[in-house]
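Re: the 382-residue chain
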Amino acid sequence: MLGVEEAARRPTFTGSTRAGAAALLAGFDFAPEGPVLVVVADCPRGEPDSAIEHAAGAGAVAFVVGPAGGVRLVEHAAAAEPYPGTRFRQAVERDVRAIDVRSYDRAAFVEPVTAAIDGLDADPSGVDAAAIHAPDGDLPYRAAKAANVERDLVDRCATVADLGDTGAASAPLSIARAVADGHDRILAVGYGSGASADGLVLAGSCPVGWPDIEPNELDYPSYLRRRGDLSGSPPAGGGASVSVPSWKRSLPQRHRLVAGQCDSCGALAFPPEGACPRCHELGDFAAVTLPRTGTVETVTTVGQDGAPPEFAPLQQRSGALGVTIVAFRVDDESVSVPLQVAADAEPVEPGETVATVCRHLYTQEGSRGTGGRSVRNSFDND
């Protein structure tokens, strides 16, 4: 998807809301060897009538950590208390469950968070913002009060009020917001793994792309369809699914829009296979990565039963699929590529410039399929 070198290390942190802070710490550990990309994403969910679901949100943040410049790690402290934990999700389940004993939940959160902050040499009053993990709008402030951190420092970068509980991405998102707002000395605390916490002090500044998120209201039936609670099984027959080997072979095209350029006439072909679309030669194609932006040539929608069977659950959740034909130019050559319109994107019209983003397309036989979708262009450049 990103064209990362095959030899690059790819550690994964999961199974805990502490994973986001752990990944960021690992990024600082690896940074002396070269640039490190740290990506944190989470989307907790509970039963529709639970407090966990009512507070649940979704968030993702990416950091590039390097050996010099930008935001640096000043110090780190960890703490743990012998609490069995407050929230659980078994591997075969989608929903998070909670013990839901309020006094116990508070103690299990406040004690390790406070201990991690106390373990730092830095004076909490000397920071500009406090990015504390926020499973709800109450616990981070209780922990801040116990650790003598001013409430205003938490308010400066809190995301729980507008994004909800973003799980492992909670503290990293607050760090990004703090840096975006110009705060150059930040206290951050990640929490999870039973009752354990990581305290970090970060200092410095760097550019941050913080998006403007427009609210999208759903009625209750639409919400249940979006969750997949009202979705049935894929229809039997009616089309062939894409095999895993075929999907794997097409990943460069699905993720990075890798086209082919004919050795004989220079025409572009997408996908880069078969005969050249211009001279019809059966020679080799040179790999060419298309730009991330292109021009819409035509737009249509595909209703239910009109798409391959693997898209049936998506259509049950989101309705008709928007599909575009987008022209991409490389020098004097152009090639047209079919792309779905991202479900959360505004409608587009022919002649508009769109950007390609990588999104989840469907899940088939337990394997998640991802690929390019088009959204109205909001990037400054290609």
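The first helix runs from residue 19 to 30.
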